[in-house]
Specification:
This protein has twelve helices and 13 strands. The chain is of the alpha+beta class and about 400 residues long. It has two domains: about 180 residues, Beta-Lactamase (2-Layer Sandwich); about 150 residues, Alpha-Beta Plaits (2-Layer Sandwich). The strands form three sheets. Strands 1, 2, 3, 4, 5 and 6 form a six-stranded antiparallel beta sheet that branches. The chain has a five-stranded mixed beta sheet with strand order 8-9-7-12-13, sandwiched between helices. The longest helix is centred in the middle third of the chain and has 51 residues. It binds guanosine-5'-triphosphate. Guanosine-5'-triphosphate (GTP) binds next to strand 7, helix 8 and helix 9. GO terms for molecular function: diguanylate cyclase activity. It catalyses: 2 GTP = 3',3'-c-di-GMP + 2 diphosphate. Its EC number is 2.7.7.65.
């Protein structure tokens, strides 16, 4: 039973498994990829909202004053950063919270909550100094982003960016003073580890789906390969039946023709066709019954099979006629086969109305590789006819001189 389960067509198994894997992985991976992007967009919206809330707690007038280094005092710095520190302490998932101003196309840090001793965080943060220039490592994806912020847009990077402080998804929102004038902007940074932690459960789902897809593909491959094997096995079986004679299990006429032509294609030095015909089978049937006739047919078939080499083709061509098609068989060898068969099947018939149980044989040997099956068969049949004419229970070799 277990062995039976292993009967599959290996080539079909791998082909179908690979095709099913490709289809299923596409079905699994494309939505996963799309939803991963969608989740990043959700995170970007979240970062934008946090940046907007952070901007709303900053006193725009004080921040505007601090933009001029001439106004800088530690007290003013503390007053500007204090509400952001409270905000940041309330949401420790945010990595950095700071404000900036643009000077000559570059961003400079103004205040940074990391610089305050009042910030409640467990992280080790690296504070930026007042008016320290911002250095990005990655290329800015949107070179006009400072302009867009100045125009009132909340700008969130398309994806995570590396700078000298780490790898962050950053959002920036403009700050306005009480007269509605643009007065720098707030920045909030979310660390990539925060994102990876959020993504870890989705990654587990992704790998689970991929493993599931591969398993299903293997199962589909197995079922199809098993079915293919089963169908092929049945076709082979039908073919085996279609070229065999049921009674004797020798090849039938169709099988004999096919294998003889294959043997002729090998173009060996000589071929022999030996036709064996039962003597007076009608008499055996009439006197002893059809079953006895069958029994004698089977006996002749077994004798023929045991009198030739394994590679020689043996067939029952019709009711009482048999064919031996032997490759690389000269006249001496063909004659020896005929003698052997005659000796083994002959016996006297005790009933006086019949003389014997036996066969007659016609032999035709073709020297050379250019033999034609039809011609050899016809000539062997002529020789067989002569054997019958001469009194049966004998073999006759086809003689081209006599035939001519
Ligand atoms: N028992 C049996 N008889 C068959 C079978 N096939 C054909 N026969 C019979 O074999 C006989 C062949 O008759 P013929 O061709 O005249 O040949 P024969 O009686 O053997 O006489 P000769 O060949 O001239 O010696 C017929 O009576 C068929 O009915 C079979 O499968 N089983």
């Amino acid at each position: 039973m277990f062995r039976d389960f292993r009967k599959i067509s290996p080539r079909i198994f791998w082909l179908v498994t690979l095709a099913a894997t490709a289809v299923l992985l596409t079905v699994v991976a494309v939505p996963q990829w799309l939803s991963k992007n969608a989740r990043l967009q959700v995170l970007r919206s979240h970062v934008a909202e946090i940046a907007q809330i952070a901007a709303s707690v900053v006193d725009g007038d004080l921040h505007r004053q601090l933009l001029d280094p001439a106004n800088y005092t530690p007290e003013l710095y503390e007053r500007v950063v204090a509400p952001l520190v409270r905000f940041h302490s309330a949401d420790p998932e945010i990595f950095y919270v700071y404000t900036m101003v643009e000077r000559g196309g570059k961003s400079l840090f103004v205040v940074d909550t990391a610089a305050s001793s009042k910030l409640k965080t467990t992280r080790r943060l690296r504070p930026s100094a007042y008016m320290e220039p911002f250095e990005s490592i990655d290329v800015e994806p949107d070179p006009d982003y400072l302009q867009r912020i100045a125009n009132g847009e909340t700008y969130v990077y398309p994806s995570f960016q590396r700078d000298v402080y780490g790898t962050f998804l950053s959002g920036h929102t403009p700050i306005y003073d009480s007269q509605g004038r643009y007065s720098g902007f707030v920045g909030v940074d979310f660390d990539i580890k925060y994102y990876l932690a959020l993504e870890s459960s989705f990654r587990a789902i992704f790998y689970g789906s991929v493993a599931g897809a591969v398993l299903i593909a293997l199962l589909i491959g197995y079922v199809v390969a098993r079915y293919h094997y089963h169908i092929q096995d049945r076709i082979d079986e039908q073919y085996r039946i279609s070229i065999r004679d049921e009674l004797t299990q020798l090849l039938n006429r169709r099988g004999a023709l096919r294998f003889s032509r294959e043997a002729l294609a090998a173009r060996v030095a000589s071929y022999a066709v030996i036709l064996v015909d039962i003597d007076d089978l009608k008499g055996i049937n009439d006197l002893y019954g059809h079953a006895a006739g069958d029994e004698f047919i089977v006996k002749v078939a077994d004798t023929i099979r045991n009198s030739v080499r394994e590679k020689d083709i043996c067939a029952r061509m019709g009711g009482d006629e048999f064919l031996i098609f032997a490759t690389g068989c000269d006249l001496d060898a063909a004659t020896e086969i005929a003698r052997r068969i005659l000796g083994k099947v002959f016996s006297h018939d005790s009933n006086s109305s019949r003389s014997h149980f036996g066969v007659s044989i016609g032999i035709c040997v073709s020297p050379g590789a250019d033999a034609s099956f039809e011609l050899l068969y016809r000539q062997a049949d002529e020789a067989l006819y002569k054997a019958k004419q001469a009194g049966r229970n004998r073999f006759v070799i086809f003689d081209p001189m006599v035939a001519a």
